[in-house]
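Format notes (please read before filing issues)

Several people have asked whether sequences and structure tokens are stored in separate files. They are not. Every record keeps both together, in the order shown below: the sequence lines, then the token lines. Line labels are part of the format and must not be stripped during preprocessing.
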Amino acid sequence: MKAYGISPVIDLADPEDSRVQACISLVTDIVCQALRARGDCFHYAVDWRDPGGPEWSTCTEDLAKPQVHTLSDPREIARLVRMSVDPFSGKAAIIRSIATCRAVTFGYDGQAFLCLRHEDDPPTSSDPSLVTTEDRSDLLADTDYFDGFLPAN
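Then the structure lines:
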């Protein structure tokens, strides 16, 4: 597996700024294209949620129950990726393919971290003035980013 960072070049400070929205859209497109390459439609996300709590909310470790979301519909995966990329939503998911092990997790400022197979094409940005992509395979050895938590130090 290889990991890639997809990062905004601009400051995502104003949700009304058209460049900010274009940046969020571009990161969303890059992620969705990479996850669904070669017809992969076996993606799932787990929303750990307190009983009766809203989707993708902060949860209580001892109370939370997993809610599994099937993401076979391209619109649903795009909605969830966009929500996770958008720093103004306050919500994020970890998405994983059960067929190819492709996965994505998200940073707090519009970043996405993709885990792809060695044979997958690396993600590219159609507008490097908004979004850059870089090989971050070093993340695979040092963290558990793709499992949704960081190891205790």
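For reference, the curators noted about this record: The CA atoms of residues 22 and 129 lie 11 Å apart. The chain has a mean pLDDT of 90.
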